[in-house]
Amino acid sequence: KQWYQRRVRGHLQVGTETLQDKSKAVKTVLMELFVKHGNSDIEGVDCLNACYGGTAALFNAINWVESSSWDGRYAIVVAADIAVYASGAARPTGGAGAVAMLIGANAVLTLERGLRHTHMDHVYDFYKPDMNSEYPRVNGKLSIECFLRSLDITYKGYKMKAARKEGKDKVDSSHFDYLTFHSPYCKLVQKSFARVFYQDYISSDKVIDHLEPYRHIQSDYLNRDLEKAFIAHSKDSFERMTAPSLLIPRNVGNMYTATLYSCIVSLFVSKSPEEIVNTRIGAFSYGSGLASSFFSFKVSPDLERVRRFCSSLSNIPSFLESRTKVSPEHFERLMKDRELTHHLPSRRPSFEVDKLGNGTYYIVEVDSEHRRQYARTSFLDAHHPRSHDKDRLLQSDCAPHYCPHM
Prior knowledge:
Number of helices: 14
Strand order of the largest sheet: 2-1-3-4
Radius of gyration: 22 Å
Helix content: 25-40%
Structural class: alpha/beta
Oligomer: single chain
């Protein structure tokens, strides 16, 4: 999407759990885009821990920009995954997607310094021990419990740091204009939002009669009555603060490392520039195993820059509409073919290239040594409207150096 010379990138981190090789980083494959332009001086490799890898890559890239190692160039973060499950109840939640972020000065989105809290632990809630299979081993109840417990710990830690930084006794969810969450499936996001309101309630002196029975059972993460009570209690706030962030996850499904950042993109697509300028966005990132963080971004107060940023993402709804629909039976057959062949050498995947979007990279061949060859469909800058809308294309005033496009 960016029109920079590719020499001005000095750091590239990839967050992914979709491994094609147990040694060679995905980042090294992406180096083809830069080496041919004379730039091999790009630090960084891959970050791996389930869905948290994109956040780890983002933190690493920002740390590089803020460090003595920074040489004035931009960093890039790529979060990308294919989320597939064995046939059964989990399969419909899967998806695939990628988000790329440009990291540097004068960004529309700024990560707030000193305002993040991390929780990590050793748990087998979701993991992939079989190197010959793409499918995870999942303990669903344990994973939900770990997710919500991590949210509790990181949100409380974030609130303490924010209160200390702002010289307040305490802060709560009103500290944010919008809240975004990792989204394995959208119902869990609503449960998570309700959990934030539950934490606010039990840390306050407020008394609401029908909520009081739940004040002292905060360690019961699977209590359906508590969940329903606080979903109802937070419903209006959820619709205002979080529902707009679910545009892409509702349409695409789980994208593992890319999901949280697709939620942030969704906000800029769903809301007008006037509604999102100079706001604070809270973010909760979770990766099974486990790694989690709660942090926040500030949106620029410059309305014109925010307008350009929103404009640069305005083609996303049309991209979603342009997808090809297939029946569940057809999808099952595709998944069976993938299951039987994805790990094999000497193969040429078959699909209709003419149905891929402009500028799409696709795999051509895996040779007898498992080396992968890619090609690209005819290129039209996907950052801008489609070619049939030439007037909009010519009039676009997007200034990519202003913002970290995702």
